[in-house]
Design brief:
With about 500 residues, the protein is α/β, with parallel strands linked by helices. It has three domains: about 150 residues, Rossmann fold; about 170 residues, Rossmann fold, CATH 3.40.50.12780; about 100 residues, ANL, C-terminal domain (GMP Synthetase, Chain A, domain 3, 2-Layer Sandwich), CATH 3.30.300.30. It has 15 helices and 25 strands. A nine-stranded mixed sheet has the order 2-1-10-9-11-12-13-14-15. Helix 1 packs across helix 8 and helix 10 crosses helix 11. The protein is globular, with a radius of gyration of 23 Å. About 50% of the residues are buried. The structure holds methylmalonyl-coenzyme A. The site of methylmalonyl-coenzyme A has 22 residues, from helix 8 and strand 13.
């Protein structure tokens, strides 16, 4: 048996073949046997389309059981799975095509024609039946692959793109060992039970929904209520049948806003997990008051999967992300990498089998962010107490987290600065009741003010909607320090209440 992570999953699929795996809202149920067979058939199609071990399979599709099958089929043949956000525009996708150098692109049927224009030589399949080369169409006529193509623990199994401070996305190479070690650790740490039912409403192109959620359930052969996205009413309808939910803080605040949400709805729940963005103490407390449950907050990144977690049984403390997971080391350092005394704020660094092997085709960036002793510099600022409990207090990187998505201001500023009539801009995140942080563009116009619709229309088709500023404000000049650097802290302070003021 090789070190392919798929060996582990496949074993669970065979063992639990008759158990439900994915239950979709119309009641259709895919058993583990069904999902394993679908993966095997998709693996056959991938091989027929020339995918060899190590080849990147770039994927931009909607969430569906078939999309899960595609991920698994890709693992089975030793391909490198590269999922990208379904909200990305064709202009954004062009970057990933160029950077990932995929052997195959699996897309939505509706995007096929545009993709063929930007990448005429790329092998392209649409996932559903709506394209000219339909992957599911081929599945019907393909023999399932039985074996798992052998891979080493250190071979890359997936590349997840994370936006960079320079505006260029970096592909984090995640190995079979990264996937396996974190999945096994989490299923254990969170006490995954044989009768757990996971409510899955997250997207499956990020670590949270794709790896953390799917892997815990799949390793233990437990059912998932598999929703296409987050809709508070549908989640409330489904929650009584679930025992575990994973979500970003926006899930929790939206549920609390709903009058039909009560402790009765949560009667079978044993665990609510939150991550991808800071959970406020206010939400933690409101959740406890309404449901009696303490949300378990944990902390991870695309480059490292999960690093820390509040405990299953011990005390869950609001505003903290808990302890380093078993087998993972976390330290707080100063700029020079020296470990700081307990209680002092510094950079969070992480080492363990969860840490990625580097950025795809960016050895220099990798060397800058992974120290020689193996610690990864996360870019988050934090503090650790005497017990080892970690709290995150800020970010060293200029980044906005909106509804669990990371948005890098540079990428937005670059496009706004290109607009006629704009001298320069600064993009910041300020408190937003729904998304945690909302994107604001502070613009210095050349003459007349630059309006929100003007900014929106110039970004349309170039930048995913979720990254676009929700508010545009005009100012005469940007505040700068003596070195000439824009003082974003001053702007964040100035516009802190912008989303409260009825906009
Ligand atoms: C949607 N919109 C957003 C966001 N999502 N704007 C800002 N921030 C967002 N996160 C905008 C759309 O562009 C659209 O704008 C309008 O809201 C409605 O879009 P819709 O798709 O209907 O939105 P929604 O369904 O209400 O989505 C909100 C959401 C979603 C459910 C919070 O963003 C979501 O599922 N977030 C989870 C992200 C996630 O999984 N993150 C994990 C990554 P317009 O009307 O202008 O078109 S991080 C990770 O994996 C790390 C490692 C970790 O530790 O977990």
């Amino acid at each position: 048996m090789s070190d392919s992570f798929y060996e582990l999953l496949n074993r669970a699929f065979v063992k639990h073949a008759d158990r439900p795996c994915l239950i979709v809202p119309d009641g259709t149920c895919w058993s583990y046997g069904d999902i394993g067979r679908l993966a095997g058939k998709i693996a056959g199609v991938l091989i027929d389309h020339g995918v060899s071990p190590g080849d990147r399979v770039l994927v931009q599709v909607e969430k569906s059981p078939e999309a899960v099958g595609l991920y698994l089929g890709c693992l089975q043949v030793g391909g490198v799975y590269v999922p990208i956000n379904s909200a990305y525009t064709i202009e954004e996708v062009a970057y990933f095509v160029e950077d990932a150098q995929p052997g195959l692109f699996v897309c939505r049927g509706r995007d096929e024609a545009a993709l063929r224009l930007i990448a005429p030589n790329l092998a392209i399949l649409s996932l559903g039946a709506d394209g000219t080369g339909s992957l599911m169409g081929f599945v019907a006529a393909t023999e399932a692959l039985d074996e798992v193509v052998p891979r080493d623990a250190s071979d890359t199994a997936a590349i997840l793109y994370t936006s960079g401070t320079t505006g260029r996305s970096k592909g984090a190479m995640l190995t079979n060992d990264n996937l396996a070690s974190n999945a096994l650790t989490l299923a254990d740490y969170w006490g995954w039970r044989d009768d757990d039912v996971l409510l899955h409403a997250l997207p499956i192109f990020h670590v949270h929904g794709l790896f953390v959620a799917l892997h815990c359930a799949m390793l233990r052969g437990t059912a998932m209520i598999f929703l296409p996205g987050f809709d508070a009413r549908e989640v409330i309808r489904q929650l009584p049948a679930a025992t575990v939910m994973m979500g970003v803080p926006t899930f929790y605040t939206r549920l609390l806003e709903n009058e039909d949400f009560s402790s009765e709805v949560c009667r079978n729940m044993r665990l609510f997990i939150s991550g991808s963005a800071p959970l406020t103490e206010q939400t933690f407390e409101a959740w406890q008051a309404r449901t009696g449950h303490l949300i378990l907050e944990r902390y991870g990144m695309s480059e490292t999967f999960m690093n820390t977690s509040n405990p299953l049984d011990g005390q869950r403390v609001a505003g903290t992300v808990g302890f380093a997971l078993p087998g993972i080391e976390v330290r707080i350092t100063d700029d020079a990498g020296e470990v700081l005394p307990t209680g002092e704020v510094g950079g969070i660094e992480v080492r363990g089998p969860n840490v990625f092997k580097g950025y795809w085709r960016m050895p220099k960036k990798t060397a800058e962010e992974i120290r020689e002793d193996g610690f990864f510099i996360t870019g988050d600022m934090g503090v650790m107490d005497a017990e080892g409990r970690v709290s995150i207090v800020g970010r060293a990187k200029d980044m906005v987290i909106s509804g669990g998505y990371n948005i890098y201001p540079k990428e937005v500023e670059k496009l706004i600065d290109e607009m006629p009539g704009v001298v320069e801009s600064a993009v910041i995140g300020v408190p937003h009741a729904d998304f945690g942080e909302g994107v604001v563009a502070v613009v210095v116009p050349q003459g007349e003010e630059v309006s929100e619709p003007e900014v929106r229309s110039s970004l349309e088709g170039r930048l995913a909607r979720f990254k676009q500023p929700k508010i545009v404000v005009n100012v005469a000049s940007l505040p700068r320090n003596t070195m000439g650097k824009v003082q974003k802290n001053a702007l964040r302070k100035q516009f802190n209440d912008l989303f409260d003021s009825g906009r």
